[in-house]
C-alpha cells in the first residue's frame, strides 16, 4: 500500500490563535488512517502563499489548510501561481473566524472536515482571477469594494470580539455610510454611478453567517454580484436585518447579478476586500475561471 503524505498549512494566528489546538484534535484521525502529515505553520502574512508555491509535488500528495478564509486565499494564490503548474488537491479544516468557504462546502467542524478529507472524494470549484495594478490575484470566496472594504478594515480592529467582529463592524458602517463614484462593468455592460458597495460572491455567505448571495454556487462558472447604489441609513439597516437569511434580495434597492466577468474603476484608488483580506486596489477587472481548483468535499 502506498502511504499518502499530506502537507498541513496551519495559520497559528487566525481564529484568535486556536488553529494548533484544532489540528491537535484531528491529527490522530490522519495517523489512524495511514496518512502521513507534515505540518508547516505560517510565520507571517503571505507565508501560506510561499509555502503553496514552493511545496515539492514529489513528496506531498495534497494540502490541508488549517485556518480561515484568509489562509485559503493565500494558499490558492500560491498554488495558481506555480511555474510548474503542479496542482494539489486541497482540504479545508475550519480554524479561522468566518470560515465561509468551509460553511459553503458543508464543513461545519474540524472533525467532520478531517473525515471529509480522509474519504478522498474531490470536486472542482471556480476561482475569480482579478487583475489589479497589472498583477493577477485569485479569489475563492469574495471580491468586495466600498463599504465591504470599510467593514473588513474595522473587523480587523475588532478581532478580539471573535465571531462578533464582522457584525459589529457592519453595524458601525451602517451608521456612517460613504458613497463612492465609479464605473461598474458587468459582463461588458458599463454603468457610471455612486455606490455604497459592490460584492461579488463565489459562496453564499460572507463574514459570520451573512447570506449575502443566496443563489451563489461554487462551480457554476458564474459570480453573483450584489450592488447597493444610494441607500439611506434606514435602508441599510433593513439590509442588515435581512442579510442573515438572504431575504434582502426582495428589497427594491438591492441589485443582484450573475455574471462571468466584472470590473470597477472608481474615482479614488480604493483598497479591495479579497476573500476578507484588504489587498489590491481599484481599478480592476475580473473573470471567473471555471472549476480550476480540486477540493476535498
Ligand atoms: N504567523 C502569522 N502571524 C500573523 N499573521 C498571520 C500569520 N500567519 C498568517 N497570518 C495572517 O492571518 C490572517 C488571518 O488568517 P485567517 O483568515 O486564517 O483567519 P481569520 O481571519 O480569523 O478567519 P476568516 O478569514 O475565516 O474570518 C491572514 O491575513 C494571514 O495572512
Automatic annotation (TrEMBL):
Protein name, UniProt field: Diacylglycerol kinase
EC number: 2.7.1.107
Single GO cellular component term: membrane
Domain DAGKc: 1-134
Origin superkingdom: Bacteria
GO molecular-function terms, A-Z: ATP binding; ATP-dependent diacylglycerol kinase activity
Protein's UniProt keywords contain Membrane: no
UniProt keyword annotations, A-Z: ATP-binding, Kinase, Nucleotide-binding, Transferase
Keyword Aminoacyl-tRNA synthetase included in the entry's annotation: no
Enzyme kind, highest EC tier: transferase
SUPFAM superfamilies in alphabetical order: NAD kinase/diacylglycerol kinase-like (SSF111331)
GO terms under biological process: phospholipid biosynthetic process; sphingolipid metabolic process
Gene: dagK
